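Practice problem: predict the structure.
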Amino acid sequence: MQPLFSAWLIDPYLESVYPIELTDSLSDISRWVGTVEIGFFLHQPSGDRAIMNGDVLTQPPLPPGWQWRETGAVYYGRALWIHVNKTGELMSPELTRYWLVGQLEFIGFRELAEYDTELSDDDDEDWNQFLDEQD
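Answer:
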């Protein structure tokens, strides 16, 4: 059995951020975010980041969204907030739930055209690209 670690689940359906336990298996991560097409977003200097559906914008109807206050970027669907160490291992986040909740605002169901959806350069990073950068 793979080791469990804690993560924060950003859940725009319930408009809440709450703790969960998961493994680093793709099937476990996919179960929480609803797809195997995952992407890493919102990279923080601490190593924390969000794992979410990397193809959500191509699969209408859009799920409820949330906005990252610092940049104004809008994201759709559930996300896992985790920490990735220098060797690429998924771990419990270093940043607190209190900090994370202060960084986002739930916006419910919105049309894509209502927001600027330009993604930053690191928002299309996938797992293999991340591991390549660690070498």
